[in-house]
């Protein structure tokens, strides 16, 4: 598990470094956020199938947006912020009863005013819509601020 977290952080860091200042097309974004698996326990703003969900709309410079995003995510129950590196944020949510862990990745693209997101369960096949509801709750809380 530690190896996976380190690899995720390293991949995010390398992708951000390699693409800082680039136009950030869809292919570049797909290299930064992990793709959804075939199971229905994941949503992503980069997916164009049943996993698809709209990105978050936010505007401002990267530092201010990431600070706001981090504050909103930290206010949600069962969360641990793993890393914030430039325009990338990785958080882990743990369920109250069974302690299931879900990964949330956020990637802000300042030129688009969008935060691309991915939320996925680590285990199991079906999440009963938990990840989609998490993103919609995050969207609501951002709109309130």
UniProtKB/TrEMBL annotation:
<dbReference type="Pfam" id="PF07386">
    <property type="entry name" value="DUF1499"/>
</dbReference>
<protein>
    <submittedName>
        <fullName>Uncharacterized protein (DUF1499 family)</fullName>
    </submittedName>
</protein>
<feature type="signal peptide">
    <location>
        <begin position="1"/>
        <end position="28"/>
    </location>
</feature>
<dbReference type="InterPro" id="IPR010865">
    <property type="entry name" value="DUF1499"/>
</dbReference>
<keyword id="KW-0732">Signal</keyword>
């Amino acid at each position: 598990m530690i190896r996976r977290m380190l690899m995720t952080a390293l991949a995010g860091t390398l992708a951000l470094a390699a693409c800082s200042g680039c136009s950030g097309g869809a292919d570049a974004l797909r290299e930064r956020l992990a793709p959804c698996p075939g199971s229905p326990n994941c949503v992503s703003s980069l997916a164009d199938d049943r996993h698809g969900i709209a990105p978050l709309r936010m505007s401002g410079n990267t530092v201010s947006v990431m600070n706001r995003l981090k504050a909103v995510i930290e206010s949600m129950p069962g969360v641990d912020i793993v890393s914030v590196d430039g325009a990338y944020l990785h958080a882990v949510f743990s369920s109250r009863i069974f302690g299931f862990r879900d990964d949330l990745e956020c990637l802000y693209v300042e030129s688009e005013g969008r935060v691309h997101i991915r939320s996925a369960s680590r285990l199991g096949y079906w999440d009963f819509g938990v990840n989609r509801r998490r993103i919609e709750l995050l969207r609501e809380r951002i709109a309130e601020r």
